Amino acid sequence: MSEKSIYILGIESSCDDTSASVLRNGKVLSNVVANQEIHTAYGGVVPELASRAHQQNIIPVVQQAIQRANIDKKELKAIAFTRGPGLMGSLLVGTSFAKSLSMGLGIPLIAVNHMQAHILAHFIDEKEQKKPPFPFLCLTISGGHTQIVKVSNYFEMEVLGETMDDAVGEAFDKSAKILGLPYPGGPLIDKYAQLGNPKTYKFTKPKVGDMDFSFSGLKTGILRFIQKNVQQNSNFIEENLNDICASIQHTIVEILMDKLKNSVKITGIKHIAIAGGVSANSEIRKVLKEAEKRRGWSTYIPKFEYTTDNAAMIGITGYLAYLENNFSNINTSATARLKVDSK
């Protein structure tokens, strides 16, 4: 590539965070995220409210990203945007804006698979971030996805196992809701778990395929456990919150690690990465790092700011696609159920 500086604008709007980022040759110059607080009152994301908030946020967020990068928008070489998967109304806002700006500036458009971008966040140019070699396994865990993906190169990915029902992020958030904790409850379970004993209560782990997941039965088991104990003691949750959270988190992390162990055994690949919002969980990070010593794995853990939905991961995916001249047609449409191994 002959150009000295390749500036890519990334736009992310798959769920409830509006984000824009500018990257220069794979290095993040800015990464602006506007969160939507309105969903807290409803205990979860309301799609219609999310799309309206994206409409309000997208122009100022993109403008801030360009300003913080200290460049002129005319210096941009391409615009990368999230095509899917995600909430359709939210995706349409980002897709429409990206297309309009692409046409206005006369620069290429790059459609990005949101789940691929979570994985490729590992390749952002950061001094202290190790980049996994190909092939590697990536445990992709978020509020909407739980998958083990074999990554052979930047754009060749194969799903080896995935959840049969609910995602791990949903299991965390629904468990928190059962305990009366506010949304999003996953980070709160992590917080209280650090003060509790993970062996206090035992929950049954679901039995599914070697590399597949299931969390609906676990959620039901936690609900019945809480209901039974609250009937006997109305203060049960309040008196035992730390131990309950620690036991729930321990069970979920054990399920994830069991499947990773199976995947390593089946594939022989010992380079293991994690990606997605739930990869910010402290217990998952700790157990994965321990596996380096105990199992001889090489593990790759992204920086916190690149785990949750953000435009930097869209930008790095766009940059890698730009290097391969992999551009998108202006007629490319948003796709709510785009698969991780889709083009």
Per-chain topology:
Elements: E1 7-12, E2 18-24, E3 27-34, H1 47-68, E4 76-84, H2 88-105, E5 109-113, H3 114-120, E6 136-141, E7 146-153, E8 156-162, H4 168-178, H5 186-193, H6 216-232, H7 236-267, E9 271-275, H8 282-295, E10 298-300, H9 311-323
Parallel strand pairs: 1-4, 4-5, 6-9, 9-10
Antiparallel strand pairs: 1-2, 2-3, 6-7, 7-8
Structural overview:
The longest helix is centred in the C-terminal third of the chain and has 32 residues, at 236-267. The chain is globular. The two termini are 23 Å apart. The strands form 2 sheets. Strands 3-2-1-4-5 form a 5-stranded mixed sheet, sandwiched between helices. A 5-stranded mixed sheet has the order 8-7-6-9-10, sandwiched between helices. With 343 residues, the protein is of the alpha/beta class. Helix 4 runs antiparallel to helix 7 (236-267) and helix 5 crosses helix 7 (236-267). Helices cover 41% and strands 19% of the residues. The chain folds into 2 domains: 7-123 and 306-323, ATPase, nucleotide binding domain (Nucleotidyltransferase, domain 5), CATH 3.30.420.40; 136-301, ATPase, nucleotide binding domain (Nucleotidyltransferase, domain 5). It is built from 9 helices and 10 strands.
